[in-house]
Amino acid sequence: MMRQKRWLPLMVMGLMMSAHAGDYAEEANPSNVFMGVHVSEAFVQGSHQTDLNYAARGIGYGVFVGADNGQWRTSLAANKMNNGEVSYEQGELLVNYMILMPAMQEAGLRPYIGLNGGYANYEAKGGYNENGFTYGGQTGLVYDLSDNIDIDLNYKYSIGAAASFDHVGNVGIGISYKY
Prior knowledge:
CATH architecture: Beta Barrel
Helix content: 10-25%
CATH topology: Porin
Number of strands: 8
CATH class: Mainly Beta
Order of helices and strands: HEEEEHEEEE
Strand content: over 45%
Shape: elongated
Strand order of the largest sheet: 1-2-3-4-5-6-7-8
Structural class: mainly beta
Distance between the termini: 36 Å
Number of domains: 1
Largest sheet: 8 strands, antiparallel, barrel
Radius of gyration: 17 Å
């Protein structure tokens, strides 16, 4: 199982990236700063020397904070998935560009594409325990339920730079509160 000190690199990275989110938030209206929670179906693919196609599925969850100026949505997220065989934890920066479709935006729908980068810890049965950088992309659809609450349906794919961690894919839903 993951020891507490493994969270230290994730927290340090989050603090460093929060400087960017803070600068971005200053440009946004106070009502465009948000925080939220998300849950996803996660598929983690390992590349172990003994089993090159080691894969696991599980329910992932996490928290995020960010800012949204209507065209760009930037957030910091902490994610976790543990199904008993594989444990995956990630801190990441997500930058999304809202694809402007006026008819959809009038209905409160905002589709987006984006990039992500972060740092993850991957543990699997057999003694695999590695930390490393991740990077990838995502796409999704934000639906504004009200002026202060939105729902985000998304797909995210991240590639791992560690030797025994190949990639992770997530299909998820999040809910944000704008404050």
